[in-house]
Amino acid sequence: MAEYSEQERRLLLHLAHDAVAAALSKQELDLSPPSEHLTEHRGAFTTWHENGELRGCVGYVFPMYSLYRTIAETAVAAAFNDTRFLPVKPEELPRLKGEISVLSPIQPIDTDDVEVGRHGLLITYGNRRGLLLPQVPLEHQWDREMFLRQTCIKAGLPGDAWEHGAKVEAFTAEVFGENSGERG
To answer: Which of these CATH numbers, 3.40.50.150, 3.40.50.720, 1.10.1200.10, 3.30.1490.150, describes 107-171?
Structure first.
């Protein structure tokens, strides 16, 4: 069962678009959450797609602010600060499709218990950390071992670091968006 209602989902997606538009026009948004539920501090990621291709993805792993503020900030960061992409230009705004992933608390997990499509992973070793959202292995058709390996690689670690002392943690996410393949 979804934690966020359809109305809350639409509101958060609309907020993500408004935050990017406001940043482009150098305006400030009112980030006062419109409901008690959206004041909860949650980790979340905002992902942008343009013409079906990844255009940016940034998030807060740990709950730092209200979900409402987190979505506004991560939407702007994904549009302008994802180092894999050039900043979004005003003419791209109508083509951007948003996806939001609201994270559960992160918990240690035994690697045998990792479920592809259910868990997102955070792998840490020393000062290196890599995170992949639950939808990533589904999009790439990875099995559990490849998911673990790719999360290590994202952290800049050897692909088998999860077998050699790296800390493995998992979370679930409520994922919803504007693309035809919405997930909940």
So the answer is: 3.30.1490.150
pLDDT value, residue 180: 42
Reported as a single tens digit per residue, the pLDDT across 90-137 is 999 999 999 999 999 999 999 999 999 999 999 999 999 999 999 999
Positive or negative: CA dihedral 71, 30, 81, 155: negative
Residue 171 has pLDDT above 70, yes or no: yes
Quote the pTM value.
0.86
| Assigned CATH topology for domain 6-29+37-103 | Glycoprotein, Type 4 Pilin (3.30.700)
Sign of CA dihedral 98, 99, 102, 106: negative
